[in-house]
Amino acid sequence: MQKINRNVVLALLSLTSLVFLLFQLCYYKFYLSQKNGAAFSKARGSQSGQDSTRWHVVRKFLGLISSHNIPVYLIDPLILGLVDKDIEQIRSSPDGPSPECKYFCAPREFTTFALLDKTWKHDVGLFRTAEKMGFQWLKIINKDPRLDGMDDLSGMEIPLHYIFKLASHAIHLVVFYERSGNFLWHGPLRLKQHMDRKFVPFRKLHFGRYPGAYEKPELLLVSIDDLKVQIPKNPSSFLEEMSHSRFLECRYREARAFFQLYPDDASLDAVEFRKKAKSLLHLAALTLNNLGVKFWLSSGTCLGWYRQCNVIPHSKDVDLGIFIRDYKADIIPAFQKAGLPLKHKFGKVEDSLELSFQGEDDVKLDIFFFYEEDDHIWNGGTQAKSGKKFKYLFPKFTLCWTEFVELKVHVPCETVQYVEANYGPEWKVPVKTWDWKSSPFNVQDNGVWPIDEWDNVIQIY
Amino acid sequence: MEEWKPNPPVKPHKKRSWYLAWKYKLMNQRALRKLCQTGAVLFLLVTVIVNIKLILDTRRAAYEEEEESAQDYDDEMLNVEVPRHPVNNKKVLDVEVYSSRSKVYVAVDGTTVLEDEAREQGRGIHVIVLNQATGHVMAKRVFDTYSPHEDEAMVLFLNMVARGRILIFTIKDEGSFHLKETAKNVLKSLGSQVAPFLSWRDMWTFVGKKGGEVYGEKHAKSPALSTWGDPVLLKTEVHLTSVEDAECHWPDTELNRRRKRFCSKVEGYGSVCSCKDPTPIEFNPDPLKDNKVFDVPVAVIAGNRPNYLYRMLRSLLSAQGVNPQMITVFIDGYYEEPMDVVELFGLSGIQHTPISIKNARVSQHYKASLTATFNLFPDAKFAVVLEEDLDISVDFFSFLSQSIHLLEEDESLYCISAWNDQGYEHTAEDPSLLYRVETMPGLGWVLRKSLYKDELEPKWPTPEKLWDWDMWMRMPEQRKGRECIIPDISRSYHFGIVGLNMNGYFHEAYFKKHKFNTVPNVQLKNVESLRKDNYETEIHRLLGEAEVLDHSKNPCEDSFVPDTEGRVYVMFIRMEQEADFTTWTQLAKCLHIWDLDVRGNHKGLWRLFRKKNHFLVVGVPSSPYSFKKPSSVTPIYMEPPAKEEGAVAVPAVAAAEQT
Q: Where's the LicD/FKTN/FKRP nucleotidyltransferase domain (chain A) (predicted)?
């Protein structure tokens, strides 16, 4: 009796566990498929390793978008990378049917599109249609940075990112805004407390870790994988731009606090100087950008941006930094052509190069060239009358975009380290008397130029 | 998955004794049964392992995902959004209403929603409207029914309130002196027993539902003319209805959703919240052909006058060629109701923390609004600046579209304004005519970005300077001799009666009779003649054509100008130097046009209409056009009357402020 019982119990248990196991296997399989994506029937993409889900979702999304007349363009770096390889062919036959699904069928979790904010009315109907089509969507809103610099304005929050999810694929729609300085800006993707953190694996998104700054792209309507879609006309330069698009917002709140402590100089002289410095900076940026020379705000101009989001009125000049590897011999003639005569040239390309141009009414444009070493970066200084050399050391840094006096310019991303290296920990306190040979925190004596080189390394006009 | 197939994965040599036992049992008769049993046990074991693996796997994946999304992507602000109002399921509201000579207050469920004990203020009947479903305050008004006509405003307001709303009344100081029969009847119809007998300095409180029950009423009679009635305190309960009963059943569209949100929050906007036949909130005026101002941002500068803003936005959104996407409303202060109005129309609004006081506050608000406008629309070369107390003409954008290129090309222009300071019913005639004037009229104008960014913004008056922004903009240091283009017939109408520099008398005298264009699609005449040099040619042509009036007559008399139509007349007044406006001011006074300071002049010349004739006034000898004066004519001189020196002092003060 007992043994039969035991057998029956065991058999029953085995059966249950078998059912259980099967159920779990199914579940596990479903779970895996959800991660990789294969819920759609393989109607398209006959080759193995292709994923038609993505193609279908993208097609649905494009249909949704065009039914609401919203112009979006493709900025997905992986697809643009593929497209770039065949760009000539795609350009030459914009309407040709494609024999195979080449771009939109690689299994990915996302496809990224961009939307220019000003080209659409914030039409709620879009989301209702999206829901009807089966999309789940998520909107990420945040403060409008264009109002951030303003004293105490509180506008409505603006949408920065949208995510449309259907089955196992998601469309990431990045909203671009026009900013002063004639560039496009997209915001960072930050989740608020109540948001669904698992809506998509946010970390894998290509856009949103940092805000970004871009030039306004020229667009091209192409047909790839039988889908009509707008792409940047020059995908490779877009991808290049994307790789260093990180944008830093000015620290407006800290700047306001600074002005609370040290009220702004509103004298006519200060107003005039700011105006001149601004137009000088605009001219310099135009000249260097035309040459394709990368530059950043340095010294006092950088401090002004970082500390008070404005030109420091008593600084009396505009300072830019350029990596020596970006040096071009055309720089001097280009500035002269732009109406800025060379005032002095210290050092040489191999060592401590520094150029100074004469702007309008005593406002000077100083360009310092930076030399990269293994563990630091430095630029040089020269005293004209004694031939003494100085060296200013900075920790290594990368470049970020920012907006300054209605201009898109570079600043060191690690700004505080840069400013602190230059001005010491007390950089928050304005100093009116400044000696470039002794005041900087990071200045070092660097010997004397040999007399026979003076003619070359000390040129004053 | 294959590796988890339930095969006994036992390696025999590892556990020898167990293997032997198994071998022995296999030979046994019960071997088969034992085998089954062992198999089952092993199978169970495998299941458990698979189970655990699955749990671990999903756990880890989920954890990773959480980790991933948590890092970097968290908003720095960690404050959890707390629901603002705890959900109140209570069906009864406790209402307290107090009325006395120097203080009134209303408390709903212990929260004070009205308290006024300021001296010399808030006299009359205070009215509060509550939502019958939520108990939220939807409108707060005070009608100074001690003064004339205020009772009419109250009747108008009460008629606009939707049926079913809860109305609370209380009197501060005095509320009966000009409370006429009509108003008393309206109050009676609301259920008040006392209202028809309200008299001098009585205290009164009343709570009732519009078109329904009365929740309470208290009254204290004034015993004598010189004394007030005793303070009264009414405590009562109000039963709330369900939300569905309090709402209209409009078709479910996006527009109606906005309407519903609006109408459940505020009261006093009339038919926009009417259940049966609501007035539209989307207007879709005809687009303009070749609209040059479609992409020009429009900044609406607003304070806390939501009813004005409502009227203003209606007229703005009805103007042909309007682009709602370019409109931003800037509200000076954290006021909810103006923002509700903005949202009703689906526009974007920005609130501004007030800085400084009075005029400087307005001035700072203007600066912030203009800067924000150019930040939000970095591509824009211009901005249209409007105020909340303006009606906008149907051809406002058409007028700008036809003239904006002048502002772009002619450096000698300061602005384009929709407002003609001297364009009254009796002095403006031609909707297609434009002028150049040396003054900046404001009240609906276009600002060039470069002017703002390069000149005005950097030296805008700081908050401690209590300057009017418009006075400041009119100063020679800012204007630098540049001029504005204005139409003969204004494209905006200033309807505001309450305001910082505004009161009923002032409005009646200077704004009410202003002419306002209502004709759509007016084709402007000869726009090119408004350019700097062309305009001089035009003026010379006009003066050449003009008939000199009889200077022996009194220019204030109607007979000064002959009874003709469509002619051009000129008169000469005495104007010793550029800033001598003695005679002009007197002339302006008797013509009933703007005389508080000098407006509308161009090189000592004023252009207006009298009896449908173009009427030119030239100041001699200061004006360069003086040479047109025939030698026989003596310029008219009008002395300021000695008595009214106070009045004349006004422009003098204004001028002093400017320097």
A: 292-329
